[in-house]
Amino acid sequence: MVIDRWTGESVKAYLVATESFSSNQKGFPVLSKSSQYVINALFKLNCQGILIGANHVNKIMGIRTYTQYLQHLWTIRDEDTGVRDFARGYEDFLQCPLQPLQDNLESQTYETFEKDPIKYVRYEEAIKLALLDLKERDTFQDVDVVVMVVGAGRGPLVKATIKASKESGMPVRVFAVEKNPNAIITLRNLNVKEWSSLVTIVSSDMREWKPPVLADIIVSELLGSFGDNELSPECLDGAQHLLKPGAISIPTSYTSYLAPVTSAKLYNALASCVDPFKPTEAPYETPYVVYLHNVYLPSACKELFTFQHPNWESSSNERYTQLSYRFSQNSTIHGFAGYFSSDLYKGISISIHPVTHSVGMFSWFPMYFPIRQPLYVLETDTLLLSFWRRVGKSKVWYEWGVSSPRPSGVHNSGGRCYSSG
Hints:
The protein is α/β, with parallel strands linked by helices. It has ten helices and 18 strands. The strands form five sheets. Strands 10, 11, 12, 14, 15 and 16 form a six-stranded antiparallel beta sheet that branches. Strands 7-6-5-8-9 form a five-stranded parallel beta sheet, covered by helices on one side. It has a three-stranded antiparallel beta sheet with strand order 13-17-18, with no helix packed on it. A hairpin with a 4-residue loop joins β17 (382-391) and β18 (396-404).
């Protein structure tokens, strides 16, 4: 609908005319379904509604019946309260992506992620299913399953593993591998107080550790808002020496997605992201993590890159894809929204894709890849986007550029404005 496009504009107020209302069977003013859709879309932008016109429906109750009806629509609006409550105050706020491989996360960051009500339930389900699958193999009749939690943080996946072991009836030998010395202190305390010292705590980079035994299952939560942007492929490939032949990785795979995005608010906010130590165009060639709110997606998400683990063939983690987008109406493109979905194990998944989003999960906000100049596209246009994942000796970065209907040039060439490593 045309109204959807307004969700990507900087709307401050809207007018609701009393002539738009009709009378219901009880003589009170109501709006049509299409008008309710419009009002609900504008509610999400938290802009001011202004009622104009004379009372022409209920002469006894007066004009307040209109405002009461609008208040009723506000109270019954469709909203994912869990995510919105968590994200309140962060709407359209540009944030630099985390780089946990390069930086040690703070305790507050761990605490925030651990509050997610969905993610660790899904992980527990995946671990339990993997254990049950191993239970069917003769080699595990009298032997503990070796589970390595790599990038263990403060232990939520260790807890999920222990619980899955109890529910499946499969005994496990658990290793928790973590490079952050602050998180190691928490893991050791939990091991004594909650895990009866049954977990082996390893203070090491997963890529460098030499294990006493090899793993049957490796579990990680290295995914970023774009799936691979926190270098999960590089970390898990580097940890592949920990695995037995035929071992299981959780997650098994993850896929990134991109969609054109209209958001004058996001684009205007880029001007305040200037870094004196980077090129002047850096704000427009840097990806951001952002809770997308005042935005409109004029075309559907398209699948970009997929990574699978274990990567037994040691395939390159460099990628290139060209995506093609068509539009249902004329639009102004301010960049691209990035999402991911992940198959943890045999169909047990987590996702922030707009269509398949795991309801209530808030651990990840989408990514935003800007372009230097807004691009106006017609309904008849086809937009072609080229996107690269580049891997160097010490860093990984993305490059992107539009080639049609008008070329934009390649953004972040050589990782000059942003990279991970």
